[in-house]
Here is the input.
Amino acid sequence: MKIGNIDLGERPVVLAPMEDVTDASFRILCREQGAAMVTTEFVSSDGLIRDAAKAIAKMRTLEEEAPVAIQIYGNLPEAMVEAAQMADRAAEIAGGHGADVVDINFGCPVSKIAGRGAGSGMMKEPDKMVAITRAVVEAVGRPVTVKTRLGWDDNSRIIVELAERLQDAGIAALTIHGRTRCQMYKGEADWSLIGAVKANPRMHIPIIGNGDINSAARAKEAFERYGVDGIMVGRASFGRPWIFREIRHLLDTGEEMAPPSVAERVALAKRQMQLSLDLKGPVTGVYEMRRHLSCYFKGLPDFKETRIRLVTEKDPAEVFALLDYVAERWGDTPLPDAEGVYGV
Here is the structure.
């Protein structure tokens, strides 16, 4: 599958953008674990054009995580164009590798985004969505992609027609989350409409499916049943970056990979922890790893006290010591890695 001239290989598995989750340390780890491409946390177009330091910092990417998409969101055409141009020049503005792809977020369902007409709030204004997309495509030199949902609610599942219009606006690939905005993350994702977009003979750009991919088996089914070109994994990767390796193994060999041992999970947690420290320093690096460390060992028996210590300790050396203790005490404990343990 190609996005522009970027070759992601056959049946690629991509890391979804997640606010406060997909920072550089997590993105690098997911690439090492088999993600074909990763995406930044979403960046506010308004923040970028105001030169907000936090928004600009989110655009800093590293060579180790490439190929990487920088995702922007907003609902004002002029601001979105300017933000896209800044994302296009991210290496110059924020330093580091920059963007391989500029991705537009038309899918975020949270009220503070969608409620003011951005993210999946744009599903109420498809004409404006298409106009913004066309303007962004014309304004940048890199491939532009879109991530969106089926529609605003069950009475406006417009994705099949909308996909054609977005393609005609010039995007290089389309990612579809199989829920409406009003569903948020409730219920099951409807992949039948994702499949309908892919089966539309007018569509020629890659279609990436997203929603409820929380196991290698579900990923394989999505490719085989719905014919998508790629899949995107979001919440199931949180505290479980090895899901990309599990999916890749099943797709490439036809065999399920055994879940990683506690010792293997500790090694990955330490790797991410060190990346976080290197990139953000000891204070922020430890603080922002807490949300990840709280999820790495879900299902481990008698773990509550140790988990509390892991997510409250401030000294990096003590966090590493606690991780070594986890490996020593629970190293041989079998842990489930089945769908449902980590959500979707």
